[in-house]
Amino acid sequence: MNLWKVAWRGLVFHWRSHLGVLLGATVGVAILVGALAVGDSVRFSLWKITESRLGSVQLALMGQNRFFREALADAISAETKAPIAPIIMTKGTATHEEESGRGALMAGNVQFLGVTNKFWAMGNVAVLTIMGEQEGVAINESLAQKIGAKVGSELLLRVDKPSLLSREAPLSTLEDATIAFRLKVLAVVDEARYGRFSLEANQIPPLNIYLPLSYLQSKLGQESRVNTLLVGQRANKPITSSETSAALWKNWTIADSNIEIHEVPATNELALTTPRIFLDPPIGEATVHSINDAKGVLTYFVNEIRAGERTTPYSVVCAMDGVLVPINVREDEIVVNQWLADDLQLHVGSQVTLTYYVVGAMRKLETHTSKLTVHSIIPIEGAAADPDLMPFIPGLSDKKNCRDWEPGMPVDLTKIRDKDQAYWNKYKGTPKAFIHLKTGQKIWENRFGNLTSVRIPRMIQSHEFVESCLRQALIPASVGFFFLPTYQEGVQASKNSLDFGLLFMGFSFFLIISALLLTALLFGFGVEQRTEEVGTLLSLGISVRKVRGIFLYEGMVIALLATALGAQLGIYYTRFILKGLSTVWKGAVVNSVLYFHLERRTLFMGAGIGFLVAMFTIWLVVRRQARRTPRELLMVEAETPVFTPTPRRFTFAHGLLLVSFLATLLMVSAGWMLPKSQAPEAFFGAGAFLLIAGLTYCRIRLRKLDEGAAEQSLSLRALGYRNAARRWGRSLNVMSLLAVGSFLVIGVGANRHDPNDIATLRDSGTGGFALYATTTLPIYQDLNTKEGQESFRLASKDTLGANFTPFRLKDGDDASCLNLNRAPNPRILGVDPNLLVATNPFSFAQLYKQMPPKTAWQILEMPQEDSNQNEEIIPVVGDANTITWALHKSLGETIPYSDEQGVTRKLRVVGILGNSVLQGNLIMAERHFNHLFPSQSGYRLFRTTAGECWHGSSRTSQRNGASKRVGTSKGTWLSRWTYS
Predict the structure, then answer these.
(1) Based on C-alpha coordinates, what's the Rg of the chain?
(2) Percent of the chain with pLDDT over 70
């Protein structure tokens, strides 16, 4: 007998019953293929976005808030034979006054790009020549839509003005921290014309403004200087970061790091100085250690020198070693010049007190004092008459009259005497006192550097020799110059993104299970209708194996047809999902454009898995049906399975019921003890075991009902029971379908929560904060003080009772659920842990070391050491979703991260927060933040407790100009938490 022929005739004859099986299996395969295809489409879309935003850019050098020679690009390009575009990248705000008169629309976090023709070549697009014909800007489509601008619109632009001296450094000023100017829009650049350019791995379109490089250089006061280099693709072979770094260092000059070497006639020395006032620590240390007899100098402006009742106001004191401070001078002693000794009537052994400012958090000036003993008194001649020991300080060095000083710190000009003015006229910034270098570095320590200059004997050294020594002692990264593999990181971020294929397969899991149950139910029903046929075949002596083979052949044909149809239907299912993600569900991908893409291997894998699963389901049904004898199958009641009474009271079903019920109790108990963040896992675990226990109990009850059916009275209820028990397999399948669906609906509903219920609680996802604020431009003032609030015209009635918790922000890749890419360089927040301990916001799901809940945030200050390499590890805290899904890390693991010197540091996850609005960031202690990123000045993110009128505060501050100055974006935590 030809089994294939029998199977084919069975398919044709029973086509009606097989049609339902075909549809059920087709749905299962379609959902499986569609879910996997969604993953392919998302990965392809992210890759396309990476290509669009980077163009041909392979590497990028970002100056870490420093500017260097524009000509460096041509020198490196000639060395590497690769195209290099010098640009300026900075952040700012753009405001457009709508013609309709509805008011001004402002966009913050706008990326200002000063570009040349070389930049447009990186995007393989035509040069925007219109920008060179008249004064104006080009903007991308995203910015145009956000602020309602078009060609011809006038924009008010505001950017952070770069300063050689950090705005938080001692003696720095804030008066010129930003600059504003108006320009017309000359062009709107779409994505095809490099309108999506960005170096951040994010699918969200940036807000870009393109300006001629020379114009932006002029506005920023950085003529012929840039802060970013873009390295393009080389024609003959790929370009590497090591190759460009070597070319960089070959053409680097000390001027690129704002270092100057000049002669000091008074002492016949060379002085290594910087307009930044404080030398970068790597440069100062390299100079002192690589050049013989080089001496470090730290000069500081003190408020007062006091001896008893006599005082000398506003003087320069120098910390150094050498001739002026001999080796026998102790660290608690001071050398004074004759003028100061006469003014304070000092003698050897006299006690003097230095009073000076040290800049603390939020630019708070903390008054410190140091008591020292006079070691010796020296005349103002030779090395002691050197005004060059004081670095150039804006607002001080450039003033002829002391009463015109504006040194960036409070100065009581009434204290300045005529004799002080006479000293300034004759000696300028010549120090009046000298102390040990170690003493000066100890009392005037700051993160910007501990030297203001280095003195080198002039006899044997020349400018060229000093620069040569520095080049040998330094590496480019140590002064903030290093190339990042931008393209490689972008491609890896798109490839290693969240697997949407598995995600949608998880979402569709119950649909796939339901389709398989439906397939089994319908196929089993069809087989049951053919019991007489099966019995006849067995009675004719055909083996059970061949009978099974007939049905399996039929099932295989159905599965093959279902696979072919399901694969095609899965493609349409994918397109439907992508359409939904681009329209009604666009919030899930933050309005990103997704392209359909299906890999051949994905199609075959999905179809193959679907076919195997369908065949396995059919095999289970056939295997159960073919167990029965021919006599049973030929009986009239053959449709009903026959139970053989058994004397055993405890069967496998009873054991499964007991184990499932105990597991349910165990999961429920664990749910009470687990952190809140793991409550959903406990819920679904307990629910799954309870579902198994319930279905097992139904299986046992159906068997008992069938065994006792003959003893039941003939009633409507009894007939229902008997009918359900007679076909218990079919009844159990129906129960499973309904149970699974009900569990899914109830489970999702039970885990939904209303943020309004807990938004004000400290341990909630909002941390109990009522408002949040992010700024494009940094804020240096303390907003908790009246002066800080007045500087931004925040009405006191609106902020009454409110408290601001400031965070420093290191820009990076968004590691929240809003970024589909994997974040290679996540954003970093720096905060003083004591501020969080005071309010104890949010709740920790996990801690690396057990700590009292009220002081849990102090874990950011706990030292972390690597037992293998004995290097410092920086503790960080992150949101559970950020750590687990975006960074693929767990508690205790380390995350590599490059600091401003290109050194890869290790960040250890010491705490994981529950569901939190801090999602997308890593939080570290502020002192660690300042150490890793010293050039990141000011605060750009604030959490605010509710004042009396906090709703009005948000609106009033917008009207009063706070948002216009720094690009503030305000809102409630509730809206952000719900959205996230």
Answers:
(1) 38
(2) 82
